[in-house]
Write a structure and sequence with these properties.
Blueprint: H1 2-38, H2 45-58, H3 67-80
Helix pairs in contact: 2-3
């Protein structure tokens, strides 16, 4: 019985891990869309995503992660790396 319970927990953990991975991919897709609308050049998308991650990692963990913070972070990427974006 114990072995069966461990197998069920292992299976549940694997399913949760797969769900988390799916959510990570969906979030990445959403950031790609956000950068698209911010005017990113295709060849700089990966650079912008990596720079965005550096910004997040440098921020205080106590800051609430809101849409306004996401917008400010994207604008920061754009301000620091203007060549990555299409000029309007």
């Amino acid at each position: 019985m114990q072995q069966n319970n461990n197998h069920i927990k292992e299976q549940d953990n694997q399913e949760l891990l797969e769900e988390i991975q799916d959510l990570e991919l969906q979030i990445l897709d959403m950031f790609e869309v956000a950068f698209y609308f911010a005017g990113i050049k295709d060849e700089y998308l990966q650079d912008a995503l990596e720079y965005y991650m550096k910004i997040i990692e440098s921020q205080d963990d106590s800051i609430e992660y809101t849409p306004q913070i996401i917008i400010a972070n994207i604008l920061q990427v754009k301000e620091k790396n203007p060549k990555w974006f299409i000029k309007k």
